[in-house]
Amino acid sequence: MADCLFCSIVAGDIPSTEVWSDDRCYAFRDVNPKAPVHVLVVPRSHHLNLAELATGDADLTVALMRGIAAVADAEGLAGSGYRVVFNTGRDGQQTVNHVHAHVMGNRAMRWPPG
Ligand code: 5GP
Ligand code: ZN
Fold first, then answer.
1. What's the mean pLDDT in 99-107?
2. Ligand 1 pocket test: which of 95, 97, 98, 100 has the largest number of ligand atoms within 8 Å of its C-beta?
3. Is 12 among the domain residues?
4. pLDDT category, 40, cuts 50, 70, 90?
5. Which of 25, 26, 53, 114 has the fewest CB atoms nearer than 10 Å to its CB?
């Protein structure tokens, strides 16, 4: 999709640090990390948010969930635990309108978040 930051990152037009990928999803380090490990996992195709992805493509939704688990394994978080966040819409403070999972760990994550 034109003018989508994460589509540009997936395409390689904007550089990023890859953590893991497969044919359907791409995972890269957040440029402004909020935890020692902070990885964004996105589907390669453009979908606005989790609701639109889940209603539009169930297989890709599962692929994204498996990508999250693969990232947690690759980053050594599976044993210690981690947080997965999908910021959605205005009140969720979603700033990039391409669905993305934040995978954060390697410190105790405060709950509830501010
Ligand atoms: P949101 O606020 O939409 O849930 O999350 C967007 C995330 O994208 C933020 O955590 C922000 O730091 C990250 N981000 C914004 N621009 C870039 C970029 O150009 N590269 C990378 N790697 N992350 C970005
Ligand atoms: Zn996009």
1. 97
2. 95
3. yes
4. very high
5. 114
- 110 in any annotated domain: no
State the residue range of the domain holding 28.
5-105
> Could you give the number of structural domains in the chain?
1
What separation in Å is there between the alpha carbon of 7 and the centre of ligand 2? Answer: 4
What is the model's pTM? 0.98
Q: Classify 93 as helix, strand or coil.
A: coil
18 lines ligand 1 (CB under 6 A): no
pLDDT digits (tens, 9 = 90+) for 8-30: 999 999 999 999 999 999 999 99
CATH number of the domain where residue 84 is located: 3.30.428.10
Residue 111 within a domain? no
User: Whole-angstrom Cα distance, residue 114 to residue 72?
Assistant: 24
Q: Is 31 in the pocket of ligand 1 (CB under 6 A)?
A: yes
Taking residues 38-67, report their average pLDDT. 98
* DSSP 8-state class, residue 87: -
